[in-house]
Amino acid sequence: MYYQSVGKLFIKKDSMIFGDSILILNNNLRKIKISVFKIIKLSRFFINTAVRIAFVIFKLSLILPILTFGVFISVILKIVLFFSNKWLYIKINTKYVLRPILRILLFVIGVKVTRPKDITISNAIIVSNHWGYLDSFLLMAFFPSVVISNVDVKQMPAVGKIIKMMGFVFVDRQNNNSIPVIIEKLTEIMNNTVLSIAFFPEGGTGDGFKLKRFNSSFFELAFTTKKNVIPVVIRIETINKEAPNQDNMNQVVFHNSQENILKHSLKLLQLKSIEISVTVLPQISYYEIHTKYLSRKKICEIAEKEIIDFIDKN
To answer: Do both 221 and 265 map to the same domain?
Structure first.
């Protein structure tokens, strides 16, 4: 009996030891699996990060020479036309230098534009919704135009000088006294060239989804230039083949009062594709403005309603 009890005790201890060993082994295997999973996850993160960095570097390697070439051509053109009519430089530089350069840049960035090919805009007042710097580039690339931008863009280091050279006209919206001066300058441009003037009545960038209230100040151009007003809607349709949402939209929409343009540009360059549609809405002709005695605010209301109705229906 004694030996039987001892034998059972040893067997029981052996079973307990074996069970503990299995448990320890399972725990160790679980830890190994977790560690392997973490390593794989970390490796994927580093690989994806490396791919994104390489992708951005590749795009920058194309963009910087294109920008440099554009600036070089603009400077040479300015020197060549130094003693000629200044309007000739603005016209040639906008139509034949900036326009093709911006189209190439948009292509390199990954922007695909859908627009009506049978519609051309010349020497008109373009009003559009606004969600960043890409919409400005789009207007200049497809409709030869001078774009009105906020003065804080001009004050950005390095970027401000490039934007100024691209023909942007800057306005300090906090200083109402500067607006009549800008309107006079823009009127001169329109009367001495066949270029259009484009501006964003929202006065700042929206979120890409909803339209902000329009400001009527620059609709005064309709009276000083006697030109037609053409509402345009620029919409982001897809980002990396996905429908726009709050997360991916922040990589495209730029709020110049809240973030650095260089940091935002690096986020933008990580995107593979951005599909944007440009829709030209029915114009508000100067004939209609004149015969119906439309006020500046009324023209603003009509343009705002056309754009809102289109966005709501689509």
So the answer is: yes
Number of domains in the chain: 2
Provide the whole-model pTM.
0.82
Using only C-alpha atoms, what is the Rg of the chain?
Answer: 30
pLDDT in 10s for each residue of the chain, 314 residues: 444 444 444 444 445 554 555 666 566 666 666 666 777 777 777 787 888 888 899 999 999 999 889 989 998 998 998 888 888 988 999 999 999 999 999 999 999 998 877 677 889 999 999 988 899 899 999 998 999 887 777 666 666 677 777 677 877 777 778 889 899 999 999 999 889 999 999 877 877 788 889 999 999 999 999 999 999 999 999 999 999 988 888 889 887 656 677 888 889 999 999 999 999 999 999 999 999 999 999 999 999 999 999 998 87
- Taking the CB of residue 205, how many other CB atoms lie within 10 A of it? 21
Last residue of a domain, one of 47, 80, 113: 80
- Cα angle vertex 99, ends 94, 105, to 5°? 135
Are residues 137 and 27 part of one domain? no
Residues 6+ apart with CB under 8 A from 178: 171, 172
Give the helix ranges, DSSP H, for the chain.
Answer: 2-80, 86-92, 99-109, 133-142, 151-154, 159-165, 178-192, 221-225, 246-249, 261-269, 286-291, 296-313
Query: What's the CATH code of the domain at 107?
Result: 3.40.1130
Residue linked to tokens 């083949």: 241
Per the CB < 8 A criterion, the answer to whether 311 and 129 are in contact is yes
Q: Domain boundary residue among 80, 104, 137?
A: 80
Q: Are 225 and 191 in contact (CB under 8 A)?
A: yes
Strand-pair partners of 232:
128, 280
Same domain assignment for residues 197 and 307: yes
Q: Please list, in sequence order, all residues whose beta carbon lies within 8 angstroms of the beta carbon of residue 210, skipping any fewer than 6 positions away.
A: none
Structural domain including 63 reads 1-80
